[in-house]
Queue: 2 jobs
Job 1
Amino acid sequence: MKSFVSKMTLLLAVLTLVLAGCGGDKKSDGEAKDKGDSKLEGELELAVFEGGYGGKYWEQLAEKFEAEYPDTEISITSNPDIGELIRPEIIAGNPPDLVYLNQTDPSGVTQGLIKEHGLTDLSDVFEGDALDDDKPLKDKVLPGVLDSVYMSPYDDGKVYLAPYNYNVMGLWYNKTLFDEKDIETPETWDDFFALNDTAKDNDRALFTYQGTDPGYLEEILIPAVYSLGGEEALDQMLNYDPEFWKSDIAIEALDIFEKIASADNGLMNGTVGLDHMQSQTSFVKGDAMFIPNGSWFEGEMEGAPMEDGFEFGFLGIPNFDGEDQQLALNSIEQMYIPAEADNPELAKEFLRFMYTEDSIKLNGEITKAPMAIDGASDLVEESLSESSYNVFNAVESDMYSISGNFAPVPKGVNVEPRDTLFDQAASVMNKEMTTEQWADKMYDVYKQVQEKME
Amino acid sequence: MKKDNRQKGFILLCILPTLIIFSIFIVYPVTQVFFKSLFSSSGFGSGDEYVGFANFIELFKDDVFLKSLKNTGFLMLVVPVITLLLSLIFASMLSFGELKEKHLYRTIFFFPSILSFVVIGILWAFIYHPNMGIVNEIMTAIGLDQFALTWLGNKNTVLWAIALVMVWQAVGYYMVMYLAGMDSIPKELYEAASIDGATGFQQFIKITIPMLWEIIRITIIFSINGVLNISFVLVTVMTSGGPNNSSQVALTYMYQQAFVNANFGYAMAIAVVVFVIAIILAFISNKLTEQETE
């Protein structure tokens, strides 16, 4: 018996030692905090998301930056799963100096840092002058972008995230089909539903969407709410005011989806079970007349089988009364400096460098997308694909593009209202739920969020 | 006495490496899961707030979590039963049947087990494709148009559709395990039984199953645990939990909460519940099958 006890004691002692060893790692992170001098020298760690825009732009930009600032050295980590790569570094208190990663990234790293207030205030970068111009940098950025919840998540007038490329989203159609058959593009939602017969004659459903990724439907819902109730109603919805879901505006906007579900030939067969690539492929093959997606659409579908003569046409989002402009939703790619970054001053300089005309052009050439800078789409016109140039051009001339993004939920809220909102779409499309039930459900969810907001 | 101590020291030295690895990679993370489940945390280290059992209380009011638990339970019940039953039947057919193509079948049935789960998920997402998938093409071709459903988009069919993939994936694997077991059953038993006039079915029930019982016990636990893991991959690849969370399972929901919504503490509470359930299930199935051997 005695030997058993002593064995166990020994075992426990070893275990404790091991556990203590593990715990010890964490404490050392304080040393990493000794921030470098604010002189423009040293090493800049740049972590970028490698998505549709690739990683080449950053390499070339870094080379140019190093040539301009000889005392600096930039190391780039570029990866499609960059979030998973930097998560441990952030937790260990040694994050990269500058990160390009969107809030919507599945890794949730950016979302988490926003929730955690773990970002450096960038207001001085935008208040200060641009590198190649005498006016403040903020005047060069597209109007409304810096005030949007994308860049100023806490509604305190401070900018925590810097804008990179911008995307415009709305409904797409096959331009060739509409031109050849003399079909008028719909201006209002009534026009939209009236096209159902034409769609049927042309052997396709009226509408499809990215079934298992229903978040794409926000490209319709946000402009629809704006069109009905203006900025005020939109703010209510995006900032979790439960009363919004009791309003007629909410019901009318959500009703678009129930109408699609209940119309014969309205929703493409099987849409709910398809992922984004499957449904988009069905669309370009001519199985559906409209689909929501962003300005990256043509690039994304490169190499996919398409129906004869298919050409990407951007419609934007119809309105309700026929008098307003067509609408579109925009989103902006986000960059930020983590709060514990070693070299924030150099990172800020790099950001300023990124907003010079030469860099914008370089970005356009390589990524085929404009940055969220006034006049950027003209600067990079030659580099854009035709469909995306048309999109940006439309937005800069006759379409109104809305910045709308759901506000970050307060800490301690374990529901994600945006997910819940669009998850219900599947039930509505399967005719298992009515618009009113949908709105009631959202009322309850928003109530929960509101309770934690005080 | 002195020699005894030296021997003990040597034993301790031998188990030390394993113990350290076990502690770092199993004991430490598991205790952390329990610990973190008591916090409201985004998973980024700072700003954790102690909330006691609030996460658990909220968990059992969260209808998505309850749905995901129900779905997990459904899969844990349905998949092992069907898989193991089919594996047993196939194994005995291959082992005792007079099939010429025995080896071919053995290979074909085992084939899905060497494919990665992600590949299987993508493959079946296309097999179930509502407009160009082979399932619906066949249905239409034989005139059953009304049964050409959106298998993965309908809350009534989606779980069965996923269960079928899991069965398809695992049958071959367990079949090979049973085959190995059957080969080691002495042939005399069957000879004696057939002299006494026992039919093939009686032999299967009275000889094969009891002789295989130890293997069956292990496969039951394997297969229940497998459901937990594999369902995560398949659901992520095939449906993302849709439509409207009808195919959400506990682990996909945990992942979503931990890494997409940055509700790390809440996700750890889910992990604790899943952990407890898995332990209880393993315990129950072990106990139930143990009694039957005596």
Job 2
Amino acid sequence: MSSATPNSGEERFPRPIHGPNRFFALSVWLKRAVVLVGLLAVVTLLLPPPAAEKLGLILVVLLIAIPLGRVIWFVQRWTRRGDLRFAAVGIAVLVVVGVGALLA
Amino acid sequence: MPSILILGFLGTFCAFVGAIGGIGGATLLVPVLLLCNVEPRLAAPLGMLAVAAGSLAAASRQLNDGVVHHRLGLSVELFASIGTVCGALLSASISEQWLARILGTAALAGAIAAIVRKGLRNQPVGIFDDEPAGEWPGTLGGTYVLNDAVVPYHAQHVGYGLGISVFTGVVSGLAGVGGGFLKTPTMSEVMKVPVKVAAATSTFVSGITASTALLIYGIQGRIEVRPAAAVVAGALLGGFIGARLQSGLQASTVRKVTGSLLLVVAVIVIGGSW
């Protein structure tokens, strides 16, 4: 329990329950993605058109998929930890993205 | 179309300022590309590629610094997306001139709010000093590090903030921009979230917005590979540097940078509408 004194402002906030490096796996995954996307971009600029077209397509697909993958990562994490309200928000965002693509 | 080198430089610059101020970057890049005689149908995807790459480059750093509030970001994005769909449907019934004025006025309001405000809204609280910065599970609150002290915060006026997010989404849908420059002031000035958290969260959310837009542009065949690769390479560099710089800046400096950028955007957009 908090030993907050009156008017200290401490009682307004819950005690955080997380530990250090809780997003370590996601952070490493994102670092690798940056390196991969960067390499693809440079190689796309250096290669002749037919090969560049294919690599460029992979580059764009990765840039579309990575933010959505990050949302999916959080949805599964929050679902496992019982934070169902925000997991539902994440799923709703993915549904809106899907509907947007279908409307296009 | 400008040379590959110039596109790379523009991508670097726009992602750099986008990562510092959390304004995305497309709002800056697209007008510059239009000035360089790039067709609007090709300029918009390049702007979104810069946003997506800048967001990706900043992600790991901002994640480790504990300044991204994913729950808040996804909540804002959900309501903004609903507005974006409404805006896209309404876009045929409003003139481009009025659209630009609405967009510019919204940016101006955000700029004034960010520049005028003085002092710190959230203060360090001693009991959190041993805790790593980050968001609290199940809430729209959390902590972030300011001058080596841990500062707790909690989003306020959430109903108003999400309502305004619908409006920012409508404006984004009408204008075809990501809307990061509206989401950051909404989170920092309406929901009272620290500006560094608001900017980093907006950068995360901008990546999702860009992802959706790129999916649509890709289906429409509007993405040219070599210019896209040049912008992405530049934006990765700009986003990486911007995120590193942002984590070391004072909150008041980030607020001033964001306000100044919004002011520039407002002048460009409103000026172009006359």
